[in-house]
Structures are given as C-alpha cells and as structure tokens.
Write a structure and sequence with these properties.
By secondary structure, the protein is an alpha/beta fold. Helix content is 33%, strand content 11%. The strands form six sheets. The chain has an eleven-stranded mixed sheet with strand order 2-1-3-4-7-8-13-12-11-9-10, with helices on both faces. Strands 20-21-22 form a three-stranded parallel sheet. The protein starts with 28 loop residues before the first helix and ends with a helix.
Length: 742
C-alpha cells in the first residue's frame, strides 16, 4: 500500500476524453446523444438534486472523473421502488457510484425528536420524500438489480460514517457496517478523490473489483487476513475492562449463563472460533509482549471487537469507537478489521490529503454553478444558500465530539491557494449574470483554519491527539492567521465585488490569538450579526464536547465589540448552544439558562443533540461512558438525557423566555429546589403563574416579551372584567365614546 500518493492528475486520460467536456453532465439518454455518447463509463447515483456546483459532492466527483477522460452520467433522486430508473442511462461500462447526498439520509429525513421533516433543502421545490431512508443501501441494491455483475462503489458522508458497526439513533440499535448491508463491492470513505480516480483507472485497465484491495481510503469485505500481515488485537493498543465488574473478562458472553462452559457456546465464542478459522494459515494475532520493536504499519492490521460483541457489550462498543478514532491520522493509521458474521469488514488507512495544487484544480473545473436545467424554475434551498459562496479549505482539527466532520474529512487542513480563490471570484463575477457583487462566504468546515497546520511535518505524522485545540491549543500548532487576513483583503478588493461575508463557523479560541485577523473580520466581513458556537457554558459539559471554556468567548467578545466600535458599526454576536449533549445535567442546563438571561440572549433556534453515526458523543450517548479515556473500571460514567421529557426540558431551558415553556421550567425548578428563580423581578428566570400573561399559549399568543422586557407583573393580579353594556347605535357622541373607553 502506497504511503506517498501519486498526483491526482498524473494518470493517462481514458480514451473517451476525445469527446471533450460536457456543458453539464447528462441525466438522460437525449443528453447523451447530444454529446455523441453511446454509453456512460461511470454512472453516479445521488440522493440530492444535481447541482453543478463545487459545494455538491456529485459535481466534484463527476467533473473530476470527466477530467480523467471518463464519460460520467448522473441519476439524481431515482424512484427506488424498482430498478427502472437505474436503467435510464443504460449499462455503465465500469461501475455505479452510489451516494446518499451531502447529508446522511436519516439526518436529512428526521428531526432530533425523530419526527419527519416537512421539507428537504437538497431537493428541487424543497419537496420531502424524494429519497429513501438509508439511501446508500437502497440505491446500491437497486443498482445491482438493474445490471447484474456491474461493480457498485459506495461513498459520500453516509457511507463514510457507517463504515464500521455503528449506533443508530433512529432504531436505537447498533447496526452493521454499511458494506454488508448494501452488498457493495467497495466503499470509499472520506473525501474520496484519490480513491475514486484510482479505482476508475484500474477497472478501465481490466482489473477485477475484487482484486482492488490496496487503495487507501477504501473498505471491502474479505475472509481472513492475508499472509504477510501482522494482526494486533485492539485491546493490546488500548486495554479494556468491565465498567461494572472490573475482574470480569469483557469478551465473555454473560447474557446466557454464568457457567463458563456454557458461555463458550455463546455468540462471542462463535466469533472467536470463526476468527481463528479466518486467520489460520495466514496472520496470527500478535500480543503486546510478543510484538517486535518495529512493525511495518503498512502491513499491520488491528482487529476491533466484532459486530456481535459490540452489540452485546457497551464496554466493547466504547472501546471500538475509541480505537477507531485513534487510527485516523493518515501519517500513522493502520488498517482496521471487524468481523461481521463469517466475513471481515476491512478498512485501509485514510487517504493522503490533497496538495494545494490538486485542491485548486478540483474547484476550477468548468462548473456551471447552477442546478441541472431539467429542474426549471424550482428552487433548491441548499443551492440558494451557497450559490455565491466559495470553499477555501477542508478538514477540521477541532475534534468536537458531537461533530462528524473529522470522521469524514480528517484532521489535516487542506487549503487552496490564494490565486485560485481569487480566480473563482472573478469567474463568478464574469459568468453569472445574477451576481450582485456579494460573496456570501469564504470558508469551509471552519472559517479560520485556512493554512493552519502543525509546525513539524514529522510531529504531525506521529501525533495521535484527537484535537489540536483541546484541552488547550497545542504548542506545535501554527495559529498564524496572516495568510487568511491577506486573502480577505484581496478578495474584497476584486473589481465588481461589493462585500465578502464570512458565514462558516468560527473557532474564536484560535481567532483571539491574532487580533489583526479579528479586526479585518469585524470591520469588513460581518453583516451585522456573527454566529459563533460556544455550545455551552459549563465546564463539565464542555469537556465532553472537547470545546474551550466560556472565557474564550468573552475574550473574543471584547475584541469584537472593540473593532465594531472603531468601525462605527452596530454589530452583534449570536451564540449557538446545544441542548441534551451527553454529560449535560438538568443543573447544567439551568446554569446555561441563567447565563443566557444575564447576557440578554433569547435564542430563537435551538440545536438539540443528535447522535450521528460514528461521532464520539454518539458513543457516549449509547454506552453511558466516556471513550475519550481508556474504557475500564475507572471509566467516567456520563449522565445522558435520553427520554423525550428530559430532552424537552433541556430545550425549554434554552428558550426560557417562551411562555410555552414556563410551566415546565417552574415544575423543574421546584423539583430542583430552585424556587428562588420563580418570580416577577429581574433576577428571576420565569414568572409566577399568571393567567392573563399565559393565556393563549399554544395558539401563537404571547412571546414572553412582557415579562422579560416591558412590564412588571403583580403576582396573582386580578383582571377586571369588561363591561357588558354596549351602545345600541353605531353613531355616538364624543362624550359617549370617552365613557365607553374608560
């Protein structure tokens, strides 16, 4: 397996490159005919509407493969109830590429309360229901039905985050890896440009899909470990013990009997038997005391607890999650293997990051930057939001446990060159008639990680930290924002550009290290409000999130207000917070609510924690322990809000100003012994019950402004009934009108 990757554009182009570049990738046979194609080499099936814009995965991958000479067709949001739609472009010569879209389909379909969403931002007309639940699995199966024997390659964020056994919030079960469920031939995880190009060229050169097992960033099913590999048990890397009974073997099946002999007949014993059979004649497990001093990482594989084991044991699930995250640095990661039934899911190490030159070329393909013409005048909300935004980087080294960016894009920042970004701005200005001079965003997963990296490449390759900024900013991290400040200045001075806004999430704990950057941002790139995400105020919760203390927010706030005043601008910080994150107690949410009121914040939108696949916080939610530390007898137990009642209360604390939540909060405060926060003075969180003020709750009446801002309410005030005496005639004297009004 190669450690140094070949240049993405060094491959010899496939012969159909003579057809040239398509104005837009075809979605019908008529469009193929117009291009002179008799067939497609590769067909991409996506759960999103097809938008030829570099913020959409199908556009980047499609244009990349086109640049390699392949004829690429798009099947967008097919009817999955039969295989008919999967045949409309004909049989692909090489493979089907399957992706659920820019979001996991379950997150796309359901709210944090597991209620169906009424719309879909990635669909024309925002129409809901245009893709199935678990779209990758369904699409892959239909593609195999459409044309038997054609390889199926799955990728995108849904496949990436479900590549090993993972807790599924919507069924409250641990699901298998998406590979055996979809029956795909190969899985590409992360940003898969390197892998998809190599797979395409090797298939075009006649290799069989089953023979392609050495590409980084890929996963596949296999039986056993090949000869020449060293197999290490994951518990030798990170020792695991029972949370409840420290002396108990965590691999022992205790669900059927306490008799040791009977336990051998359990599913875990079967797993061990199968494992021994798979490994016989090939690699054997090497234990720590047997391990040679220097092992070749390129031929070393770590065996995670099997699917059956992580289903039965939350201890082993937390352990597997921890080891999985420790093996995500491309510089030192080893292959992972996890048994599913009688076969293994094999995951090669993550792909090598793209160079700046490779990254530039991805964003300078001839995108139309528009939805496919077949959608007509239907609006696609996600497109409308990003149509004039520009991606300048990818990846995130923040390591926030509730976020899945690092599991997908990695921790190493990949940045475009300054010249490439400016060329894209000029291209928008010159080629998009609707452009009004406003760039809506220069950013990425994080607004201000552009060109930030480890000061030492050698240290970066060997580092196993989950975050470069928690519990504090690493001393080896380059936090120089000058390249980004320079880019901002140059972008806003491009002819024809009126404003350049920054809408991506900002790491204010990094920004405060460079006041000059904050000054540039606040003076020129904030449209009145800047959204940032402290997420919480309490140290215990923030530690489970791997977020900085709230003090960093106040230091940033000082700089923000200082530079806003110097620019003679009235601007506001809009902080975002999460409710019901693992480790958050009722008392934590109460403290946050008090903080919000003291700082005069009244959040309109509340972000409830959703356990997304593979996130560390999802492991906390499922297991009740903290996988940030070794899982064993001294493991930290975590209280987690799981019931609908508790989650609703935590959300209510964030919206303490809404009358609809007052009764719930009053009940909770009495239970918590905090009745001192109930009353009608400024120091109180919610008012005493008042029928007049809370009348009409649920019918859209009353927003809480009377209590929190304008009037003082007398407790138990009696409302004088209106007079029932009404004038008999519409025409009345002035004196009569005055009497009535009094």
């Amino acid at each position: 397996m190669q450690i140094t990757a070949p240049n993405l554009f060094s491959y010899r182009k496939f012969w159909p490159h003579k057809f040239g570049t398509a104005t837009v990738l075809p979605m019908s046979r008529d469009e193929m005919d117009d291009l002179g194609w008799d067939s497609c080499d590769i067909i991409i099936v996506t759960g999103d509407a097809y938008v030829d814009h570099p913020s959409f995965g199908m556009a980047i991958i499609g244009r990349l493969l086109e640049s390699q000479g392949f004829r690429v067709g798009i099947i967008s949001q097919p009817d999955w109830r039969s295989a008919d739609d999967f045949q409309k472009l004909g049989k692909p010569n090489l493979f089907f590429g399957i992706a659920a879209g820019n979001m996991d389909s379950m997150v796309n379909h359901y709210t944090a309360d597991r209620k169906p969403r009424s719309d879909d931002a990635y669909t024309a007309g925002a129409q809901a229901g245009k893709r199935p639940n678990r779209a990758t699995v369904v699409y892959a199966q239909r593609a195999k039905e459409a044309y038997k024997g054609i390889p199926v390659v799955i990728g995108g964020i849904e496949a990436s985050l479900r590549r090993i056994a993972q807790y599924d919030y919507w069924t409250e079960k641990v699901r298998r890896s998406i590979l055996p469920d979809s029956k795909a031939d190969i899985l590409l995880f992360g940003n898969a440009e390197r892998a998809i190009v190599e797979v395409a060229h090797r298939l075009a050169n006649g290799e069989k899909i089953a023979e392609i097992t050495d590409i980084r960033g890929t996963g596949f099913m296999r039986q056993g470990v090949p000869e020449g590999w060293t197999l290490i048990d994951s518990t030798d890397i990170d020792a695991v013990g029972s949370i409840e009974h420290p002396d108990t073997n965590p691999y022992l099946d205790t669900t059927q009997s306490t008799d040791c002999e009977k336990n051998k007949k359990g599913s875990q014993a079967e797993d061990k038997k199968t494992e021994d059979k798979l490994n016989s004649g090939a690699a054997q497990i090497i234990h720590f005391h047997e391990r040679p001093k220097k092992l070749d990482r390129t031929t070393t594989v770590i065996r995670l607890p099997s699917y059956n084991q992580v289903v039965e044991s939350k201890v082993l699930y937390a352990h597997a999650s921890r080891v999985f995250h420790l093996e995500t640095n491309p510089g030192n990661a080893r292959a992972l293997v996890q048994m599913h039934g009688k076969r293994d899911v094999w995951l090669n190490p993550p792909p090598q990051p793209l160079s700046a030159n490779e990254f530039d070329q991805l964003f300078e393909f001839p995108y139309t930057r528009k939805p496919h013409p077949s959608y007509g005048d239907l609006k696609i909300p996600a497109y409308d939001m990003i149509r004039f935004s520009i991606n300048i980087m990818r990846g995130c080294f923040g390591g926030c446990t509730f976020c899945s960016i690092t599991e997908h894009e990695g921790r190493i920042i990949q940045s475009r060159s300054e010249d490439s970004v400016i060329r894209e701005i000029e291209s928008i200005r010159d080629n998009i008639p609707e452009f009004t001079g406003i760039i809506s965003d220069l950013g990425g997963p994080t607004a201000n990680m552009y060109r930030l990296s480890c000061k030492s490449h050698k240290i970066e390759e060997s580092c196993r930290r989950l975050s470069c900024v928690y519990p504090g900013v690493c001393e080896n991290l380059n936090t120089n924002h000058k390249p980004l400040t320079k880019l901002y200045k140059r972008a806003r001075n491009v002819d024809g550009v009126k404003r350049v806004f920054i809408a991506s999430g900002l790491r204010y704990d990094l920004a405060i290290r460079d006041p000059e950057y904050v000054k540039e941002l606040v003076t020129h790139h904030v449209g009145g409000r800047l959204k940032i995400a402290p997420e919480h105020t309490e140290k215990s919760t923030l530690s489970r999130m791997m977020k900085p203390p709230i003090g960093s927010y106040f230091r940033f706030k000082e700089l923000f207000e200082k530079y806003s005043k110097e620019a003679c601008k009235e601007q506001y910080l809009i902080p975002y917070f999460i409710s019901s994150h693992p480790g958050t107690t009722d008392e934590d949410m109460l403290s946050l609510a008090i903080w919000l009121k003291e700082n005069k914040f009244k959040p309109d939108q509340v972000q409830q924690f959703i356990p997304t696949p593979m996130a560390l916080a999802s492991a906390m939610y499922h297991t009740g322990v903290n996988p940030l530390k070794t899982v064993g007898s001294d493991t930290e137990h975590i209280d987690t809000a799981k019931t609908a009642k508790t989650r609703k209360l935590h959300k209510a604390f964030l919206r303490y100003h809404d009358p609809e939540n007052w009764q719930m909060i009053r009940t909770a405060l009495k239970r918590m012994g905090r009745e001192d926060l109930i009353g009608n003075a400024k120091e109180h969180l919610v008012p005493e019950f008042n029928a007049r003020l809370e009348k009409g709750i649920g019918q859209g009446q009353g927003k809480g402004n009377d209590f929190h801002h304008r009037i003082k309410i007398k407790p138990h005030a009696k409302v004088k009934p209106k007079s029932r005496n009404k004038p008999k005639h519409r025409t009345r004297s002035k004196a009569a009108k005055n009497r009535t009004s009094r």
